[in-house]
Amino acid sequence: MAFTMTPRQGLVVWVYSLKQLRQLRRYGTIYYTSRRLKYVYLYVDQAMVAPTSEQIKKLHFVRQVEVSHRPELDMNFGERVGQLERTEDHEPHESVGPKILLTSKEILEKDS
């Protein structure tokens, strides 16, 4: 028997009350619960994200459901460690000296 890893994705479920927390267990694995902010982080199989989020949205105690964008991000940072990207558009700031605050009269005199 070979182990196969199924890709999973996170759902953030904002709720009105955490009393119905057990009902969310049937939809996926509960990873984290915030009692103060009243949300539940739930892991679901990636193939079942759309139908599961629609089912969860229909529950009376659910305020909002958000899908995690982590699978869309490139998590390979090994090539970029210790390197700072420099672009030609971004030039380092030159120190001109101390900044002097001008009054509105001085600004008008300077422009004319």
UniProtKB/TrEMBL annotation:
Domain of life, per lineage: Bacteria
Alphabetical list of HAMAP family matching this protein: UPF0298
Matches recorded under InterPro entries: DUF2129
Source species: Loigolactobacillus binensis
Subcellular location: Cytoplasm
Name of this chain's protein: UPF0298 protein ACFQZ7_09520
Family from the record: Belongs to the UPF0298 family.
Keywords tagged on the record: Cytoplasm
Main location: cytoplasm
